[in-house]
Amino acid sequence: MLMASSGCMPFVSYVVTVYNKAMVLPFVTAGLGAQEDDFEREFIFVDDGSTDGSADRLRELTAGWANVTIVSQTNAGPARAFNAGIKLARGDFIKPVDGDDLLFPWATARLLEAIETTGYAVACAPQSATYDPASSVADVMASLRRQPGTVVRWDDALRRCLRRAQTNPSAWLARSETVRASGGCDERVFIQDYSIELRLAALGPFAKSSEPLFLSPEVATERLSANQGQTLHDMNFALANFIADRPDLPRDLARLAFTRAAARAWAWARRHGGNGPAWREFRLNCGARLRLLAPSAANVRATCAAFTRTNSIRLGDGTRTDPG
Question: What number is the average pLDDT over the span 262-271?
Answer without folding.
Answer: 94
